[in-house]
Design a protein that fits this description.
123 residues; mainly beta; 7-stranded mixed β-sheet; 4-stranded antiparallel β-sheet; 11 strands; 0% helix
Length: 123
């Protein structure tokens, strides 16, 4: 089973870019679809997108399509979330999650989660 650890969060200004990393260990990373979620207290968890292990297809939520990009490196066992044009409403705890399904559409499809990394967007 895979363990996931996020990194790269921090305090940025509106309009900045930030890249989060999700490092995997303990399993065959190439066999897991990796997704990114974010959580804001009072608003709940929001799905951002995933990159399928099977065909490499990437699916994004409408709220971040065109601003965020998910990539992965199966040699280095790491996935990334590139975030551009960040705004205050992007402030959240960001989590990566892993699933053995090729197109996992629900959070319950993801048995493996990282501990999260905080992103704060403020001037």
């Amino acid at each position: 089973q895979v363990q996931l650890v996020e990194s790269g969060g921090g305090l940025v200004r509106p309009g900045d870019s930030l890249r989060l990393s999700c490092a995997a260990s303990g399993g065959d990373f190439s066999l897991y679809t990796i997704a990114w979620f974010r959580y804001v207290p009072g608003k709940g968890r929001e799905f951002l997108g995933y990159k399928s292990y099977r065909d490499g297809r990437t699916t994004y939520a409408d709220s971040v399509r065109g601003r965020f990009a998910i990539s992965r490196n199966n040699v280095e066992n790491v996935a990334y979330l590139q975030m551009n044009s960040l705004q205050s409403e992007d402030t959240a705890a960001y989590y990566c999650a892993g699933s053995g399904r090729s197109r996992p559409s629900d959070p319950s499809d993801y048995p493996y989660w990282g501990q999260g990394t905080q992103v704060t967007v403020s001037s």
